[in-house]
Protein backbone atom coordinates (compact mmCIF):
# COMPACT_ATOMS: atom_id res chain seq x y z
CA UNK A 1 0.00 0.00 0.00
CA UNK A 2 3.03 2.30 -0.28
CA UNK A 3 1.52 4.02 -3.31
CA UNK A 4 -1.57 4.94 -1.27
CA UNK A 5 0.45 6.23 1.67
CA UNK A 6 2.48 8.39 -0.70
CA UNK A 7 -0.69 9.67 -2.33
CA UNK A 8 -2.59 10.54 0.86
CA UNK A 9 0.13 11.30 3.39
CA UNK A 10 0.89 10.17 6.95
CA UNK A 11 -2.29 11.62 8.47
CA UNK A 12 -4.44 8.90 6.87
CA UNK A 13 -4.83 5.34 8.16
CA UNK A 14 -5.47 2.83 5.37
CA UNK A 15 -7.01 -0.64 5.59
CA UNK A 16 -7.95 -3.14 2.83
CA UNK A 17 -11.66 -3.18 2.01
CA UNK A 18 -11.71 -6.82 0.96
CA UNK A 19 -13.37 -7.95 -2.24
CA UNK A 20 -12.21 -10.26 -4.99
CA UNK A 21 -9.73 -7.89 -6.67
CA UNK A 22 -7.79 -6.71 -3.61
CA UNK A 23 -7.69 -3.24 -5.14
CA UNK A 24 -10.07 -1.45 -2.73
CA UNK A 25 -9.25 0.31 0.54
CA UNK A 26 -10.75 2.35 3.34
CA UNK A 27 -8.92 5.52 4.37
CA UNK A 28 -9.60 7.47 7.56
CA UNK A 29 -8.21 10.81 8.68
CA UNK A 30 -7.81 11.79 12.34
CA UNK A 31 -10.47 14.50 12.18
CA UNK A 32 -12.98 11.94 10.92
CA UNK A 33 -12.85 12.33 7.13
CA UNK A 34 -13.32 8.91 5.51
CA UNK A 35 -12.93 7.70 1.95
CA UNK A 36 -13.38 4.52 -0.07
CA UNK A 37 -10.47 4.15 -2.51
CA UNK A 38 -10.15 1.94 -5.54
CA UNK A 39 -7.49 1.43 -8.19
CA UNK A 40 -8.43 1.52 -11.87
CA UNK A 41 -12.18 1.87 -11.53
CA UNK A 42 -14.03 2.45 -14.78
CA UNK A 43 -14.58 6.05 -15.94
CA UNK A 44 -18.22 4.97 -15.76
CA UNK A 45 -18.02 5.65 -12.00
CA UNK A 46 -18.34 9.41 -12.53
CA UNK A 47 -21.73 9.06 -14.24
CA UNK A 48 -22.95 6.58 -11.63
CA UNK A 49 -22.01 9.09 -8.93
CA UNK A 50 -23.75 11.96 -10.72
CA UNK A 51 -26.90 9.82 -11.00
CA UNK A 52 -26.82 9.03 -7.27
CA UNK A 53 -26.50 5.29 -7.88
CA UNK A 54 -23.17 4.91 -6.05
CA UNK A 55 -21.72 6.98 -3.16
CA UNK A 56 -20.39 10.37 -4.24
CA UNK A 57 -17.14 10.47 -6.21
CA UNK A 58 -14.82 12.90 -4.35
CA UNK A 59 -11.75 12.89 -6.61
CA UNK A 60 -9.84 10.98 -9.26
CA UNK A 61 -6.02 10.96 -9.48
CA UNK A 62 -3.61 9.37 -11.92
CA UNK A 63 -0.36 7.89 -10.60
CA UNK A 64 2.99 8.00 -12.41
CA UNK A 65 2.50 4.30 -13.14
CA UNK A 66 -0.61 5.15 -15.15
CA UNK A 67 -2.97 3.65 -12.57
CA UNK A 68 -6.03 5.74 -11.73
CA UNK A 69 -7.21 6.06 -8.12
CA UNK A 70 -10.79 7.04 -7.32
CA UNK A 71 -12.01 8.25 -3.93
CA UNK A 72 -15.65 8.05 -2.90
CA UNK A 73 -17.47 9.04 0.25
CA UNK A 74 -17.29 6.18 2.75
CA UNK A 75 -20.91 5.52 3.66
CA UNK A 76 -21.98 4.14 7.01
CA UNK A 77 -24.51 1.47 6.26
CA UNK A 78 -24.99 -2.20 5.51
CA UNK A 79 -25.64 -4.56 2.64
CA UNK A 80 -29.20 -5.70 2.07
CA UNK A 81 -30.39 -8.96 3.55
CA UNK A 82 -31.64 -11.50 0.96
CA UNK A 83 -35.26 -11.07 2.05
CA UNK A 84 -35.01 -7.30 1.55
CA UNK A 85 -34.48 -7.74 -2.18
CA UNK A 86 -38.26 -8.02 -2.57
CA UNK A 87 -38.66 -4.39 -1.40
CA UNK A 88 -40.13 -1.92 -3.93
CA UNK A 89 -37.13 0.41 -3.59
CA UNK A 90 -34.88 -2.29 -5.08
CA UNK A 91 -37.19 -2.54 -8.09
CA UNK A 92 -37.36 1.25 -8.39
CA UNK A 93 -33.57 1.74 -8.31
CA UNK A 94 -32.97 -1.01 -10.85
CA UNK A 95 -35.61 0.57 -13.09
CA UNK A 96 -33.89 3.96 -12.77
CA UNK A 97 -30.61 2.36 -13.85
CA UNK A 98 -32.14 0.48 -16.77
CA UNK A 99 -33.95 3.59 -18.02
CA UNK A 100 -31.00 6.00 -17.71
CA UNK A 101 -29.98 7.39 -21.10
CA UNK A 102 -26.91 9.01 -19.48
CA UNK A 103 -25.60 5.68 -18.21
CA UNK A 104 -26.24 3.99 -21.55
CA UNK A 105 -24.56 6.75 -23.56
CA UNK A 106 -21.48 6.67 -21.32
CA UNK A 107 -21.07 2.90 -21.44
CA UNK A 108 -21.45 2.93 -25.22
CA UNK A 109 -18.79 5.65 -25.45
CA UNK A 110 -16.50 3.37 -23.43
CA UNK A 111 -16.80 0.82 -26.22
CA UNK A 112 -19.41 -1.54 -24.83
CA UNK A 113 -21.63 -3.15 -27.46
CA UNK A 114 -24.86 -5.07 -26.76
CA UNK A 115 -24.21 -8.48 -25.25
CA UNK A 116 -26.21 -11.15 -27.07
CA UNK A 117 -27.22 -14.63 -25.85
CA UNK A 118 -24.88 -16.04 -28.51
CA UNK A 119 -21.99 -14.07 -26.97
CA UNK A 120 -22.90 -15.45 -23.54
CA UNK A 121 -23.03 -19.03 -24.85
CA UNK A 122 -19.60 -18.62 -26.41
CA UNK A 123 -18.16 -17.31 -23.13
CA UNK A 124 -19.74 -20.15 -21.14
CA UNK A 125 -18.39 -22.84 -23.44
CA UNK A 126 -14.91 -21.26 -23.47
CA UNK A 127 -14.90 -21.10 -19.67
CA UNK A 128 -16.11 -24.67 -19.29
CA UNK A 129 -13.31 -25.84 -21.56
CA UNK A 130 -10.99 -24.81 -18.72
CA UNK A 131 -12.96 -26.93 -16.22
CA UNK A 132 -13.92 -30.13 -18.11
CA UNK A 133 -15.01 -31.89 -14.91
CA UNK A 134 -17.87 -29.39 -14.64
CA UNK A 135 -18.84 -29.92 -18.27
CA UNK A 136 -19.76 -33.51 -17.45
CA UNK A 137 -21.85 -32.70 -14.36
CA UNK A 138 -25.44 -33.83 -15.06
CA UNK A 139 -26.99 -30.51 -14.00
CA UNK A 140 -24.51 -28.50 -16.06
CA UNK A 141 -25.07 -30.69 -19.12
CA UNK A 142 -28.85 -30.23 -18.85
CA UNK A 143 -28.43 -26.49 -18.46
CA UNK A 144 -26.24 -26.22 -21.58
CA UNK A 145 -28.77 -28.18 -23.63
CA UNK A 146 -31.54 -25.88 -22.39
CA UNK A 147 -29.59 -22.74 -23.27
CA UNK A 148 -28.75 -24.03 -26.74
CA UNK A 149 -32.34 -25.03 -27.45
CA UNK A 150 -33.80 -21.74 -26.22
CA UNK A 151 -31.15 -19.29 -27.43
CA UNK A 152 -32.70 -16.16 -28.93
CA UNK A 153 -31.73 -12.90 -30.62
CA UNK A 154 -31.92 -9.40 -29.14
CA UNK A 155 -32.30 -7.56 -32.43
CA UNK A 156 -35.65 -6.06 -31.40
CA UNK A 157 -34.72 -5.54 -27.75
CA UNK A 158 -34.09 -2.14 -26.19
CA UNK A 159 -30.75 -2.91 -24.54
CA UNK A 160 -29.86 -1.07 -21.34
CA UNK A 161 -27.02 -0.78 -18.85
CA UNK A 162 -27.03 -4.01 -16.85
CA UNK A 163 -25.11 -4.40 -13.60
CA UNK A 164 -24.67 -8.16 -14.26
CA UNK A 165 -24.29 -9.11 -10.57
CA UNK A 166 -27.37 -8.03 -8.63
CA UNK A 167 -26.34 -10.11 -5.61
CA UNK A 168 -27.69 -8.73 -2.31
CA UNK A 169 -24.09 -8.03 -1.22
CA UNK A 170 -23.87 -5.30 -3.86
CA UNK A 171 -26.84 -3.32 -2.52
CA UNK A 172 -25.77 -0.80 0.13
CA UNK A 173 -28.34 0.80 2.44
CA UNK A 174 -26.86 3.84 4.16
CA UNK A 175 -27.70 4.81 7.74
CA UNK A 176 -29.88 7.60 6.36
CA UNK A 177 -31.89 4.98 4.39
CA UNK A 178 -30.45 5.82 0.94
CA UNK A 179 -30.03 2.80 -1.33
CA UNK A 180 -27.02 2.33 -3.62
CA UNK A 181 -25.97 -0.38 -6.06
CA UNK A 182 -22.18 -0.78 -5.97
CA UNK A 183 -19.40 -2.80 -7.69
CA UNK A 184 -19.88 -1.93 -11.36
CA UNK A 185 -16.75 -3.57 -12.75
CA UNK A 186 -18.74 -6.09 -14.84
CA UNK A 187 -21.41 -3.76 -16.22
CA UNK A 188 -22.59 -4.49 -19.77
CA UNK A 189 -25.09 -3.26 -22.33
CA UNK A 190 -27.68 -6.01 -22.53
CA UNK A 191 -31.31 -7.07 -22.35
CA UNK A 192 -32.75 -5.89 -18.98
CA UNK A 193 -33.95 -9.47 -18.45
CA UNK A 194 -30.33 -10.31 -17.62
CA UNK A 195 -30.48 -8.38 -14.32
CA UNK A 196 -34.14 -9.19 -13.70
CA UNK A 197 -33.65 -12.93 -14.13
CA UNK A 198 -30.92 -13.23 -11.54
CA UNK A 199 -32.63 -10.98 -9.03
CA UNK A 200 -36.12 -12.46 -9.22
CA UNK A 201 -35.12 -16.11 -9.45
CA UNK A 202 -32.64 -15.84 -6.60
CA UNK A 203 -34.51 -13.58 -4.19
CA UNK A 204 -38.20 -13.00 -4.90
CA UNK A 205 -40.91 -15.67 -4.46
CA UNK A 206 -42.48 -16.37 -7.84
CA UNK A 207 -45.91 -15.49 -6.46
CA UNK A 208 -44.62 -11.91 -5.96
CA UNK A 209 -43.00 -11.44 -9.38
CA UNK A 210 -45.89 -9.57 -10.99
CA UNK A 211 -46.13 -7.14 -8.07
CA UNK A 212 -42.35 -6.59 -7.99
CA UNK A 213 -42.30 -5.95 -11.73
CA UNK A 214 -45.11 -3.42 -11.32
CA UNK A 215 -42.83 -1.43 -8.98
CA UNK A 216 -40.08 -1.78 -11.59
CA UNK A 217 -42.55 -0.33 -14.08
CA UNK A 218 -43.40 -3.10 -16.54
CA UNK A 219 -46.06 -5.74 -17.01
CA UNK A 220 -45.18 -9.39 -16.60
CA UNK A 221 -45.31 -11.41 -19.83
CA UNK A 222 -44.52 -14.98 -20.80
CA UNK A 223 -41.76 -13.72 -23.11
CA UNK A 224 -40.12 -11.81 -20.24
CA UNK A 225 -40.28 -14.88 -18.00
CA UNK A 226 -38.68 -17.05 -20.72
CA UNK A 227 -35.84 -14.57 -21.11
CA UNK A 228 -35.37 -14.25 -17.35
CA UNK A 229 -35.05 -18.02 -16.99
CA UNK A 230 -32.50 -18.18 -19.83
CA UNK A 231 -30.35 -15.44 -18.31
CA UNK A 232 -30.64 -16.85 -14.77
CA UNK A 233 -29.37 -20.23 -15.97
CA UNK A 234 -26.56 -18.68 -17.99
CA UNK A 235 -25.41 -16.55 -15.05
CA UNK A 236 -25.48 -19.52 -12.70
CA UNK A 237 -23.23 -21.48 -15.06
CA UNK A 238 -20.80 -18.56 -15.16
CA UNK A 239 -20.76 -18.26 -11.37
CA UNK A 240 -20.29 -22.03 -10.94
CA UNK A 241 -17.25 -21.96 -13.20
CA UNK A 242 -15.86 -18.83 -11.48
CA UNK A 243 -16.16 -20.29 -7.99
CA UNK A 244 -14.72 -23.61 -9.19
CA UNK A 245 -11.64 -21.87 -10.58
CA UNK A 246 -11.15 -20.26 -7.17
CA UNK A 247 -11.51 -23.59 -5.35
CA UNK A 248 -14.67 -22.47 -3.52
CA UNK A 249 -16.40 -25.84 -3.31
CA UNK A 250 -19.25 -24.77 -1.03
CA UNK A 251 -20.17 -21.93 -3.37
CA UNK A 252 -20.06 -24.32 -6.33
CA UNK A 253 -22.43 -26.73 -4.58
CA UNK A 254 -24.79 -23.92 -3.57
CA UNK A 255 -24.94 -22.62 -7.15
CA UNK A 256 -25.47 -26.13 -8.53
CA UNK A 257 -28.45 -26.52 -6.19
CA UNK A 258 -29.85 -23.19 -7.38
CA UNK A 259 -29.33 -24.28 -10.98
CA UNK A 260 -31.40 -27.40 -10.35
CA UNK A 261 -34.20 -25.30 -8.83
CA UNK A 262 -34.28 -22.88 -11.77
CA UNK A 263 -34.25 -25.74 -14.29
CA UNK A 264 -37.33 -27.39 -12.69
Automatic annotation (TrEMBL):
Q: Which residues form a coiled coil?
A: none
Q: What protein is this chain from? A: Thiamine kinase
Extract the PANTHER family matched here: CELL CYCLE REGULATOR CCRZ, PHOSPHOTRANSFERASE YTMP-RELATED
What Pfam families does this protein's entry cite?
APH
Ranges for the Aminoglycoside phosphotransferase domain? 17-230
- Read off the InterPro entries from this record: Aminoglycoside_PTrfase, CcrZ_PhaseVar_Mediator, Kinase-like_dom_sf
GO terms, molecular function:
kinase activity
